[in-house]
Amino acid sequence: MTDFLLELRCEEIPARMQAGARADLEKLFRGELEAAGVTPGEVTVWSTPRRLALIARDLPEATEAVSEEAKGPPEGAPDDAIEGFCRKAGVSRDQLELRDVKGRMTWFAVIEKPGRAVKDLLAEAIPAIVRAFPWPKSMRWGADSISTESLRWVRPLSGIVAILGDDLVPCEVGGIASGYVTKGHRFHHSGEVTIGSAADYAEKLRACHVIVDHEERQDMIRKGAAKVAAEAGLSLVADEGLVIENAGLTEWPVPLLGRFDEAFLDVPPEVIQLTARVNQKYFVLTDSPPLGEVAAQSADGGGSGRAAPSDPAAGASGPPPPEGENLRLANAFVCTANISAEDGGAAIVDGNRKVLAARLSDARFFWEQDRKVPLRKQAQKLDRITFHEKLGTVGEKVDRVAKLADWLVFDAKEPNGDHKLAREAAELCKADLVTEMVGEFPELQGLMGGYYARAEGISEEVADAIRDHYKPAGADDEVPIAPTTVAVSLADKLDNLLSFFKIDILPTGSKDPFALRRAALGYLRLVQANGLKLSLDTVVHAWDGRPNVALAEKVSAFLLDRLAVQLRDEGVRHDYIAASRDWQGRMDLRVDRVEARARALTDFLGSDDGANLLAGYKRAANILKKEDWRGIEGEISRTGEEDPLAMVDDPDLRAVVEAKMAERHGKELSYTPEPAEKALIEALDSAEPKAGSAIEAEDFAAAMTALASLRAPIDRFFDEVTVNAEDKTKRSARLDLLARFRAAVHNVADFSRIEG
Amino acid sequence: MSRSDALSFQDMILALHAFWSEQGCLILQPYDMRMGAGTFHTATTLRALGPEPWNAAFVQPSRRPTDGRYGENPNRLQHYYQYQVILKPSPPDLQELYLRSLEVIGIDPLKHDIRFVEDDWESPTLGAWGLGWEVWCDGMEVTQFTYFQQMGGFDCRPVAGELTYGLERLAMYIQGVDNVYDLDFDGRGYTYGQVFLENEKQMSKWNFEVANTDALFDLFNKAEAECRNALAHDVPIAAYEQAVEASHVFNLLQARGVISVQERASYMGRVRDLARGSCEAYMAKEKDRWAAEYPEWAA
């Protein structure tokens, strides 16, 4: 058993691609070994900006020998056929043997495949891995690139180290031959480094100022940055994305603390943090005492913190780590250098300080310039910005959002609040898009509007609404509950959905350029968190100035699809939503009601009563289907001229159906019902009005409880009563009874849509 | 706080010329037209096409009308200098050559933190893109380092390496000055401000306030027409010059704020068509000769 080392050295690999590259290298390597029947022991993959390294433990020296058999032509076949078979199998004629195959003598070749040296196998695998490497973006370079077929890599590939045990694995790809030699740190050790084996690789590089293990570098940055912060009496604002990114930019990370002019602290802290993070990859710091106490403070003090969870894999371009408006920054930063400078980093810190100062003075300039123009005046410029070529300008969008926000509060009273504030906030909510600051940092949209609104003395409630109206932006983002914010946020999302659906721009597959799925999810979460009861037909009427049921239904269907995805994790099945999506014969345009019903259904069908009732329902439905018994609804529908099913769904016929059913049920049976039959009739007599009024009151749990009382009677009915009685009167009365049972269930939820 | 041993602005340029000349580069002069970047110089754009080796270095004055600040911003200028190096095919030691050039102008990589940070380059107007980095010196971007992959919509065969140094930034860094106008220009008392401050004031005013927009629109249309005229007569270099002219006039119109967001894309598309058409014609004119001289290119 031997260990294997592979290093692929190249010019600087983008930091954001390194994690993916490590995973791909391991996957391709394992794939090559598996194809050859070799199972490695532990496989470790490392990356630095200039190299990908893989160490595989416990590889065998050679693969196992195998013996394969090939069946050839039968005895007596023409010579040509037999010789052809020998050539194909790679054996001579005298190596063939005859065997009996079902009474027929047939030639067989036994091919002995000797084990292969793993070294040879690796020598073939390495070029294959390099050629197949799935970089997100790759390039050609150098003289070979006169052909577009030349090797592609993320940046020019410059060296390969491949050592099995102590032996070189000789291979070549794109003109680069494998060897024992690699390079150390670009500046600290610019000469060559000779590696002996997998065992001394990491330590030899360490001696040449390269920490090849990315996790070790991450740890050095995490701890080193906290240490320089503590030495200055400050604490670091932890940012795992930055830790990973800086580890991907350095082979020898050295965190250094610098200061900037205190005067820049006038600029909002989010702006400082963003420019430091995104443009310069710096950590920011707070004055507060280190660690434990800070965590405790932010947990208590938050309230309306701008929660956006950090995604370590996203790097500095991802969302910033969680911080609140009460974030108080110190006038300091930590940068991560890639060298141990002779002067302890003084010149490096000074250079970085200047760059940050230039960035911050730009930001302060924007902050000052923007505040000279009131938001209402900024908002006028939105008339010059196209929202979408078919949907007019952003100014027009803002008008629609303002009208709708006002309507939501004033007319719909969902949410309950001050409609004038909602209108004001909506009119100003996009004004920051034309500010210099948001032009520079688009991710600050909303936030800056809030700051500018407060700075010009606009009320807190309106400023908060401007700041937070994009929320919730993701599945983990907090959901607004302040009425003015809720109104603007809802109106904005509804306008996006209605506008694009109206011109038939819908998300398809993975394509959702206008983030309509996110808008839908945001709408759902706002409705859920605030207990809103909004019917889309009235929303569309208010938005469009006229009824448009088709549009309301289209958007509702989309919302319900998103609801199914959203609730999946909570165990609410999509078919339960399907069973709940109709209301009084039409698509329910209130997602809150569909959700409430689907949740009640989930609880009910999860109970014994529910499961048994569903079984009873299915049995009843199957019998009715088999007998083509349409019951009373069907009977009435057959009197119509249109499609019978459409007639059943016609809400105008509902009263007629109910009247007819009452009349029929009110009639005495012409025979004495069996006890179980009588019990079911009585149970229905009792359950139907209860379920009906519960549904009317939208108390779905109560409606389900009413249904649950039918469970025992329906079970007993099936046990004791013969539906298919010889007496035609009895038979049709019993089928009617089952139809009545089915209708009673349907009145609560459409069980026919429930799968399984 | 100026460093006494630091190179002056002009000595820095001379040091770069001497260095790249030693590496076998032609030392060219600026292209005598207004352009937004050194990449527009025919020595870069057109010479990046085709199989012939090409190594050149030059300073290119770069005009960015919208970056003008009337001489009041310490970093932003509507006219500044780029130092361009183009090496085709890209040599295997391009990074090392580049780092040596930094040492030549006084940047010690064991004292300063030099980093290659991902930054892919794309010029929609030239139909060009490449992969590379922005080079950081103590957190400041001092150079754009690119391996051209396509130019004018054509694959670069072979790939050229392009280095674009921001000369003012580098000089500010080396000399330790915070304001571009304080740069020591010649080592004998002239500052950058004495040479260029008045130009910045007047040109900013002209770019933003004075330039006759009707005349500019007219110029744009005439450049476009002339480009097509040149293409019709199979003189692609002349056509390309008109594409460069149109591109700059478009930038001026932008600075005057008379091109709406909606129109912007359409104007850029028109410039791109001219630039691509010129590259295409340039290729077409040379391709038989290239194919004869470089059989592996023809393949």
UniProtKB/TrEMBL annotation, chain A:
InterPro entries: DALR_anticod-bd, Gly-tRNA-synth_bsu, Gly-tRNA-synth_heterodimer. The keyword S-adenosyl-L-methionine does not apply. One of its GO terms (cellular component) is cytosol. GO terms for molecular function: arginine-tRNA ligase activity; ATP binding; glycine-tRNA ligase activity. The gene is glyS. It is an enzyme of class 6 (ligase). Pfam families: DALR_1 (PF05746), tRNA_synt_2f (PF02092). Tetramer of two alpha and two beta subunits. This is Glycine--tRNA ligase beta subunit. Belongs to the class-II aminoacyl-tRNA synthetase family. It comes from the Bacteria. Residues 667-747 form the DALR anticodon binding domain. Residues 294-326 are annotated as: Disordered. It is found in: Cytoplasm. It catalyses: tRNA(Gly) + glycine + ATP = glycyl-tRNA(Gly) + AMP + diphosphate. Its EC number is 6.1.1.14. Coiled coil: none annotated. Keywords: Aminoacyl-tRNA synthetase, ATP-binding, Cytoplasm, Ligase, Nucleotide-binding, Protein biosynthesis. Residues 306-317 have a biased composition (Low complexity). GO terms for biological process: arginyl-tRNA aminoacylation; glycyl-tRNA aminoacylation.
UniProtKB/TrEMBL annotation, chain B:
It is found in: Cytoplasm. GO terms for molecular function: ATP binding; glycine-tRNA ligase activity. One of its GO terms (biological process) is glycyl-tRNA aminoacylation. The keyword Protein biosynthesis applies. Keywords: Aminoacyl-tRNA synthetase, ATP-binding, Cytoplasm, Ligase, Nucleotide-binding, Protein biosynthesis. InterPro entries: aa-tRNA-synth_II/BPL/LPL (IPR045864), Gly-tRNA-synth_heterodimer (IPR006194), Gly-tRNA_ligase_asu (IPR002310). Pfam families: tRNA-synt_2e. Its EC number is 6.1.1.14. CDD domains: GlyRS_alpha_core. Tetramer of two alpha and two beta subunits. Belongs to the class-II aminoacyl-tRNA synthetase family. PANTHER family: GLYCINE--TRNA LIGASE, CHLOROPLASTIC_MITOCHONDRIAL 2 (PTHR30075:SF2), GLYCYL-TRNA SYNTHETASE (PTHR30075). This is Glycine--tRNA ligase alpha subunit. It comes from Croceibacterium salegens. The gene is glyQ.
